[in-house]
Write a structure and sequence with these properties.
heterodimer, A: mainly alpha, 6 helices, 3 strands, 6% strand, B: mainly alpha, three-stranded antiparallel β-sheet
Chain lengths: 140, 213
Amino acid sequence: MKIKDFAKSVYLGLLGMLMVAALSISTAHAEYGDVVINNYADAAGMRPVVFPHWYHRIRFRCKVCHADLGFQLKAGGNNITMEKIIDGQFCGACHNGEIAWSIENCGMCHSGVPGTPTQIHGSTVQRLVAPSYKEMTKTK
Amino acid sequence: MNKAILASCAFLAFGMVSVQSQAQQAPASAPKQTTANTFNRLLQKPAEKNLEPAKDGIHDTENDSTFVLQPPKVAFDSLVKSEFGNYVDWVKSLRQEKIRPRTDRLGSDEEQMVMDLDIVREVRGTMPDVVFPHKAHTEWLQCSNCHPDIFVPQQGANRMNMSSILLGQKCGVCHGKVAFPVVTNTCRTCHSKPKPEGWKPSKSAASLENPWQ
């Protein structure tokens, strides 16, 4: 009898933990237009980059990055590497300690949850897909 | 006699208390409900607006710098509001000079080349025709951002439909990603020119060839 009770409590505990995990996965409310770039970061043992579009469009018109600096209009489409940034390309055109803070602040860009795939957050395509089916909670 | 009354009162009071406590202890008698038939089962919960990085779910809270990043709400406080996307009307915010984004990297006073030309695209279906304002777009972008890779600068050369836009082609390269999203309350932002008077939708071949009509 006691063993049965113990097994039941363990089962309930596991169920609870699973539910908490499922909830925490489905609670990404990042800002519309935030770009996660994870071309190489995960493989290199760094957190993926989260690029806040909103922060930059307050300060620059789209054309500055998407025409002058040559950023493609596609998440992860630029194959940006730290070498290119150090050489003054892409992010490095401004993040050089003169226009914006320099690249020593690793964690300011590499701030994403490890394992997050490259994406534009909150995009219509993401919202088109029905939310993943959650298992119904059992009632006694 | 008095004692008997007191005793019966006490007994009654005790009885009521015990009945109440029983009622409190027995929620199991409430009607059984399953979550199978909940209202709007697949509808997403309304997103919480402009959460700070540490709470937005994609920033790592174990990263110290996450807490140094500016929360969007702080930045958007003085901007013109909207109902979707970042909940900011970027075009109005720019026109009302709530923001002054640079036109080049270094912030020289080079003026943005703005072209005021509306393009009307006739829509085959019953939706109002689309008016494309070059003005709102050239306030942010340069010709080369869209022409000729995304849109061939020639009338009738760019075929598109809402499915392709939703999947990120044509207007969908930006709209639905960073520019205002493609949701039901933005339909009429583009589909803004009413059909000419007397306009009727063309009938499908299946309808025209229907022998029973």
